Description:
- This protein is mainly α.
- Helices cover 89% and strands 0% of the residues.
- The chain starts with a helix and ends with a helix.
Amino acid sequence: MSNKNLETLIDEALSNIRNDRKSAREFLNEIANQIAADPEQNKYLSPVAAKHIETLQRSNEQLVKL
Length: 66
């Protein structure tokens, strides 16, 4: 693999990680707003949020391994 291809892949991986973080931040802010408006939603929304973040974390770990 050439250095150019490696640089491109690294740039793409970093971009994906940054996009995932931004998406996760927006998602968690929305969840927090919903829970603040209706605390009963916490028991339903927290597991969904945790699973979403776990999935993003695994994706990021795979990108970093590359």
